[in-house]
């Protein structure tokens, strides 16, 4: 349920502007319905909206009345709805309110992170679009193009073939190609190439309607492309129109996707299944929806047998801003028809990756990148070639490419097997794959904690000891559902950073930052949120980094100082067990005995100040909790709070260099593990 426009991400305004009028798309027992135009209240008065075709006028209160009567409500500005309908009509995509409602629930939110606050507070009206003449009159001098001076291998191709190929590429890719071939660089003389930029699915598709109304011979397409570059449009009404068009493109692609169902399915009882999946509930961990659904929408599971003469696997992904989602898998064999499961479409946002395999027996499964929303990317594992490159992109694009990759997804090798894989299981929602599994006739596929868990930011190296024998949340972490484990090396892989560690903070809502000598900002953090996010040390200087630094400055009384340069080290971690009969309020949820620390530190009774203790080789310790009395000893806590502390055992001869954490969504219970080296 969102109280912002699904297209532009802004609220309905309480003052006269284009943000004041709105429509409501809501669900009823008979299906999805669209309200008439409403207008927000301004200074306590109800201003009527313009009446067209006998439409009924609503005030903003209508939205809240509908919101109280149904769970599924989508809000759109009246102008944004008009643009969305126009873009769907240009792409010849039929408008079905029921299907549109389902896609609105899954739509990615508009990104305002990098927006100038002044524009955010007063965004321009996207319906006020300048004419083609107004756009091109500001710049009539085009840079000269150098004609190719010599021929190369591509010069033997007819010009029509070159145009046909290059018009399907982005302009930036064609600019790069000209460095490899001067013949390909001649495409910039072609008006046909520049005109293709303004197609419905082109880079300037938001101007498709405006250019379609004008004779093609009257437009200098190259000049128009130059005059509508992002740097020139920023902050204008056409720039805001482009943002809404980008959201509309997502609806166009997802609404036009075709579902592929295998003709024959494998028996679920004939194989031993190993699965990974996204979450089974909506974004609010307290607002659970029935299992077998996804964001309240039904999902479908398909099982297919792997053909004995398998020659390749094709993975289809859709790109949403800077992330990708797997939408379909296709198995190609030498003698049998190809088997495709999932959703496919022909669009620039859809990409297909194919990995060749020498035989079906060489296929060993997938390394999977996933988040609560589903499968982000896959790597095919083969006995002959090992792991393929990522089919999709799980890497955070905000991090400089020359640095170590930072993943915006959890990684797992649960679906990599040493035995033969005989079948695949694919679970889909309305347009993407939310779960995947492997089926084997042989049940020898054993569980290994390091390979089987969902890890962020990546799977820990084999040289690190996870001390899993002391981590009692293994059954839950490896059980059905989405249960990510977050880990951090505050001491580095070999402990070299321990001599620089100066403090850690333990009262933040979703992370434990670690501070180092002469560094005012945390270098690394232990993130124990439910969705993968990048650590502050990995983020560039964006609004997100600045806001997180401003919001998460720790209270000095909750900072635990460590004299790393002087040789002080964390040498022990203790976790507390609730005594039998204590904290009856949560007994039905957590059970009588469970290692725990609350995510918000507010669910415990006042007598329980914290349930994890960290101690150093100098006899100093801190308790993770919410009261300044945290420096009491374990003995006092056991006596006064009814707690029983247990030391996490580490591998003999190793030093503690990191932590990993597992947090359940239902009650935000945190389980802590120790990494040593």
From TrEMBL:
PROSITE patterns listed in its UniProt record: FBOX
Coiled coil: none
Superkingdom of origin: Eukaryota
Pfam families registered for this protein in UniProt: DUF7600, F-box
Signal sequence extent: none
Domain named F-box: residues: 151-197
InterPro entries for the chain: DUF7600 (IPR056021), F-box-like_dom_sf (IPR036047), F-box_dom (IPR001810)
Name listed for the protein in its UniProt record: F-box domain-containing protein
Organism: Penicilliopsis zonata CBS 506.65
